[in-house]
């Protein structure tokens, strides 16, 4: 349910390219090394014109039993659920059961500012309603079943954090409320509505509203890596509803996003509204660039699960990632998958590390700039650890992987120094930038 955050120096480049051949070998090498170094467990799929052109599962469905994941394994998808929920809301609008501009006070008169908050405000995170997953006690409560009334009381316990429609701020509470509104207008449970209006319509075989994880049903547990893979607690699925409660796999997710963006679930005018970005958020969709290509979709995170789903309409290309354990950024997996399709270079990370002395790092220290890069990068050290910090971003601790070469592996960043000429080469996601020490 948490919004998936990505940290990195770079932004995607902008040039024109199209893949003639899908580079599956490079992807296989990447996933093999990620598995070998305990960096990633998950399932990915790439589809073109509705046909899967690449699928891969790595890691375990369950560490304790040693059960392997497979390409049909099912994962909690977290906030990708919001795209499903937004689709259901637009279906209700097209059925004349709701309007974007109506206030929510009919359904929730006790929610603060209910007379000012619209359905549209909930969809694009402009309601001002407090995000229940930001509650300091949330992780003490999220494994305990909650009634709909208890959920609303949890949300309403904290005052509004801004005036409705004055700005955008991500809040899972918005989509919990939207889920309950759907239940009120259809007089059915959210899982029933989801099944009837999306799952059955698209004949999705591995998608449903979640319950307690069932390994016998080819579901997977989630993990965090702390030197070993540590199983994570399960959020009780009475809580996330349409904000983060759906289970699926990449093949089904690709089918869903392609159907949605092509107007097969709601009309194309509704899709355009969903795609319209205001202060970083659409209505159930976000937007990403890759070179000169634009994709629409969403990310997700719940417990130890993370996920990404994006569709590139021009190429009829969909890419889905579901993970049940990683200490390697999902954004780098996405870049690798897209690079394989668009025939762009992608460096396979090195997870080897060499020892360096504190005094050896002095030759690299300073501030570096590049004419074609929007930020300067300050290189400092803490004892024998080299630290890079781009303008306006947090510090990153780098690992020495070769002479004059340092990496921040989680984001796929490689810095190669040439102290003799006071230069630094930054590599990430196929992009290369030459910096000069000031």
TrEMBL record:
<feature type="signal peptide">
    <location>
        <begin position="1"/>
        <end position="19"/>
    </location>
</feature>
<protein>
    <submittedName>
        <fullName>Beta-lactamase family protein</fullName>
    </submittedName>
</protein>
<dbReference type="InterPro" id="IPR050491">
    <property type="entry name" value="AmpC-like"/>
</dbReference>
<dbReference type="InterPro" id="IPR012338">
    <property type="entry name" value="Beta-lactam/transpept-like"/>
</dbReference>
<dbReference type="Pfam" id="PF00144">
    <property type="entry name" value="Beta-lactamase"/>
</dbReference>
<feature type="domain" description="Beta-lactamase-related">
    <location>
        <begin position="43"/>
        <end position="328"/>
    </location>
</feature>
<keyword id="KW-0732">Signal</keyword>
<dbReference type="InterPro" id="IPR001466">
    <property type="entry name" value="Beta-lactam-related"/>
</dbReference>
């Amino acid at each position: 349910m948490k919004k998936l955050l990505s940290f990195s120096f770079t932004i995607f480049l902008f040039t024109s390219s199209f893949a003639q051949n899908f580079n599956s070998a490079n992807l296989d090498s990447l996933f093999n090394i990620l598995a070998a170094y305990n960096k990633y467990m998950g399932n990915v799929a790439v589809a073109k014109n509705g046909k899967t052109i690449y699928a891969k599962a790595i890691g375990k469905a369950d560490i304790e039993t040693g059960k392997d994941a497979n390409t049909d394994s099912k994962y909690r998808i977290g906030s990708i659920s919001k795209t499903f929920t937004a689709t259901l809301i637009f279906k209700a609008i097209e059925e004349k059961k709701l309007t974007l501009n109506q206030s929510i006070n009919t359904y929730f008169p006790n929610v603060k500012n209910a007379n000012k908050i619209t359905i549209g405000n909930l969809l694009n995170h402009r309601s001002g309603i407090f995000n229940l997953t930001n509650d300091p006690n949330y992780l003490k409560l999220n494994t305990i079943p909650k009634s709909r009334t208890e959920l609303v009381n949890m949300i309403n316990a904290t005052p509004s954090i801004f005036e409705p429609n004055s700005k955008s701020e991500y809040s899972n509470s918005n989509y919990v409320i939207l889920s309950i509104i759907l239940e009120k207008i259809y007089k059915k449970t959210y899982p029933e509505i989801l099944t009837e209006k999306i799952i059955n319509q698209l004949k999705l075989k591995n998608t449903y509203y979640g319950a307690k994880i069932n390994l016998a049903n080819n579901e997977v547990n989630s993990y965090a890596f702390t030197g070993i893979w540590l199983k994570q607690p399960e959020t009780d699925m009475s809580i996330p509803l349409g904000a983060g409660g759906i289970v699926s796999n990449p093949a089904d997710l690709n089918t869903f996003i392609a159907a949605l963006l092509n107007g097969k679930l709601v009309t194309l005018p509704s899709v355009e509204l969903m795609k319209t970005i205001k202060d970083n958020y659409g209505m159930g969709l976000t937007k990403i660039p890759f070179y000169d290509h634009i994709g629409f979709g969403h990310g997700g995170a719940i417990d130890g699960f993370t996920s990404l789903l994006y569709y590139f309409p021009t190429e009829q290309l969909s890419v889905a990632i579901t993970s049940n354990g990683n200490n390697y950024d999902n954004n780098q997996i996405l870049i690798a998958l897209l690079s394989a399709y668009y025939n762009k270079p992608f460096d396979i990370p090195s997870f080897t590390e060499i020892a360096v002395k504190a005094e050896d790092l002095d030759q690299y220290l300073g501030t570096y700039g590049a004419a074609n890069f929007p930020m300067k990068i300050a290189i400092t050290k803490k004892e024998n650890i080299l630290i890079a910090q781009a303008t306006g971003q947090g510090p990153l601790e780098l690992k020495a992987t070769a002479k004059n070469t340092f990496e921040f592996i989680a984001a796929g960043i490689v810095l190669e120094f040439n102290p003799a000429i006071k230069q630094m080469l930054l590599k990430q996601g196929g992009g290369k930038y030459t910096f000069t020490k000031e």
